[in-house]
Amino acid sequence: NAGVTQTPKFQVLKTGQSMTLQCAQDMNHEYMSWYRQDPGMGLRLIHYSVGAGITDQGEVPNGYNVSRSTTEDFPLRLLSAAPSQTSVYFCASSYRNPNYGYTFGSGTRLTVV
Amino acid sequence: AQSVTQLDSHVSVSEGTPVLLRCNYSSSYSPSLFWYVQHPNKGLQLLLKYTSAATLVKGINGFEAEFKKSETSFHLTKPSAHMSDAAEYFCVALDTGRRALTFGSGTRLQVQP
Question: Is pLDDT larger for residue A110 or for residue A40?
Answer without folding.
Answer: A110
